[in-house]
Amino acid sequence: MVATWFHPVCQDKELSADNPWTCPGDRVLFDASFICGLVGPKRIFGARGNYGAINWFFLIGATGPVIVYIFHKIFPSQKWILMINLQVLIGATANMTPVTSVNCNVWLIIGTILNFFVFRYHKKWWQRYNYGLSATLDAGISFMAVLLYFTLTMENQSVNWWGAGSEHCPLATCPTAKGVDLSLDPAETRVCPVF
Prior knowledge:
Radius of gyration: 23 Å
Order of helices and strands: HHHHHH
């Protein structure tokens, strides 16, 4: 959790070297200039690169709204099709914080329950309480972040439970470069595939 409302938290030059706060995020300009200038997009997004499949998303992004429009014309009585806005759905992922997929699943479930089912079947309740509930959930996350910092981090304690670690998939730590083999012993069971 990042407390961005405190001014110097995301200002690296104003923080001391032993500061425990971080401000994770993308540095797109630096990454883009590094990829295009030093490595070259062909080695990353081309046929020899690891991320060539990403190019298909340009086609998906261009045809997605057309498909929604076609479905709206085919099924004009289905009003929920008008609620699909792919630009908002895809663009909203750019504003997501760098978290694990567990957090994203919870956001998706809570958001679907509140903004689809409750909105549809209990509209009065949604109109009266949804904004307050959203603010309360945000405040609860912020309060818990401060509480955990003062009770655990300042006391050099840590929490060891299933959700506090990484993605819990042995393949999540595997390298993506071609030809890298992490097994030290050939008889050892290989977790990471070698491409």
